[in-house]
Amino acid sequence: METLYHFFVTSFLTGLIWVIQVVHYPSFKWIDQSDYVSYAVFHTHRITYVVAPFMLAELFLTLRMFFLKGIPSSLMWSAVGLTVIIWASTFFIQVPLHGVLASHKDLSAIDKLVSSNWIRTVAWTLKTTVLGWIVLNSLRDKGGPL
After folding, report:
1. Can you give the pTM of this predicted structure?
2. Which domain covers residue 33, as residue numbers?
3. Does 78 fall in a domain?
4. For residue 85, is it within any domain?
């Protein structure tokens, strides 16, 4: 059952990051200069309330994979590696860019935010796929770590 929760949490984050990637981040360019800093600060605070609990739950569930039986090690390590990529990208790339954008509108920083966010978008998409395989294998085997 834990693997199924993990799949749902990661699927939620994957859907959210696609909306952010395709709609939200590109729209930063369209915010008027006079409103931009207020908007950027608003975005950062509000999105944190949505994303942080799910990312923490996902991290916990990823770490719990080490204690579940029946998960092929290649899939487990793929999920763990993708989680490391997501967290590293978030804290070493996206968070600093949001810091820049909280002080002023910077079109170059917005472009970097959009282009670098593909790292997380692809990683979460791949992780959802990996977890989907784990769930399917568990259902097929009827006794796996689902």
Report:
1. 0.93
2. 2-141
3. yes
4. yes
